Amino acid sequence: MEKENSFMKTRPVFSLLLSMSVPMMLSMLIQSLYNIVDSIYVSRLGTDALTAVSLAYPLQNAIVSIAVGVGVGISSAISIHLGAGNQEKADRAATLGIALTVFHCVLFIIAGIFITRPFLSMFTDNPAVLEDACDYTYIVLCLSFGSLLQIAFEKIFQAIGQMKITMYLLIVGCVINIILDPILIFGLLGFPALGVAGAAIATVIGQISAFLLYIVVYARKTYAVHIRMRYLTFDKHLIAQIYSVGIPSSIMMLLPSVLISILNRILASFSEVYVAVLGVYFKLQTFIYMPANGLVQGMRPIIGYNYGAGENKRVCNTIRYSLVCAAIIMLLGTVLSLVIPEQIFALFDADSELMTAGVTALRIICLGFLVSSVGVIYSGTFEALGNGRNSLIISLLRQFIITIPLSFVLSHFLGAIGVWIAFPAGEFCASIVAFFLLKTYKKGTFSPV
Questions:
Q1: Rounded CA separation 33/130 (Å)
Q2: What is the DSSP string of 44-62?
Q3: Alpha carbon separation from 274 to 49, 103, 186, 266, 356 (Å, rounded)
Q4: pLDDT tens-digit profile of 97-150?
Q5: Is the Cα torsion angle 314, 250, 95, 98 positive or negative in sign?
Q6: How far apart are CA 354 and CA 341, in angstroms?
Q7: 3-state SS string over 25-43?
Q8: Cα(155)–Cα(46) distance, rounded to whole angstroms?
Q9: Pick from 398, 378, 256, 264: which is nearest to 323 by CA?
Q10: Highest mean pLDDT pick, 114-123, 160-169, 223-232, 365-374
């Protein structure tokens, strides 16, 4: 098993990073595409339906945040223990990770039943929007086990370098969702027209399908880690290791939900159109940040394994190459947002009011894309090194500490434009802090500059 993962410290760093990251970048792009396709189909039902799905996004994102956060903790623990040659610890981390995920599934069912309507009622007094938002959210929360378990297996496979498997299965889930969306939303092929609820059902079917395929794939072959009942014992040190990275990572991913909820309240005081703009933007920005996230997912196991093996130079080189690749992705996103924002918003059947507000928002927010490369890569680096605290600090600065207070202040003087300006301001501040955090971590051992 040790030999099976030795390529992590023997292959040239750049080609290894590409081989690990490109499959994840492609799968993230596909996932971004199906998120946008979801909104495009829902937008055909009208602005109220699009607003309803936008209001549901924070709770939907909470599911993914918990799943990915714990998954990152599992992946980090597995990579570090494999790099250190401790096979039993790696196996125990994978097994405990799945057990913790099952526990989280139960919590989300309870949350879906009791939290959905009170939460959504805080953000709209439109009965039609509220009912659509509740229909969508009840389904994605109460049937979230597919998403949670799919992501847990995804992170386990990523930890051992099996990126192509995670790419194929993620694509399968996305394609199933894309195919079912128009069928269930509009009632094609003899199915009833379910509207917004149809979009939610298509989403959970895609997630459950991907999870079941992971079970089939894992059962057909022996991999570098084993999930076995005999490893299911209470190991407080290993659980602490998983959660020390997983909790900050989950909080980091929950921040957009908190951010959107607060910004929705600010923007709604001006017009509900701005709420729709924010919802559309967060769908669009995944098309830019998810490829970068795919790069981070490819980078993490390389850094974790080589950190565990004491290969510090390879860790630095991995970070350096990752920064360059992320900057290229972000530069492309900036150029597209500045040059063709009208064509982008036209995908959502934007009326003149939504188009005008959306184009202005996108052209302002995109000014922070390029500099955010530092924050995104350095945050992922600290996760791979098992330091969730510094990763959380960077994320809090990017999406909370700077953005929210600045939005409150600037919106009093500039209206909705003040909210858009707060986004690049947060990215600039976070990147400066991230640079110095890594520069001083372990006396600058892992600083790529």
A1: 26
A2: TT-HHHHHHHHHHHHHHHH
A3: 15, 37, 27, 9, 10
A4: 899 999 999 998 998 888 888 888 887 778 888 888 888 888 988 898 988 999
A5: negative
A6: 12
A7: HHHHHHHHHHHHHHHHHHH
A8: 37
A9: 378
A10: 365-374
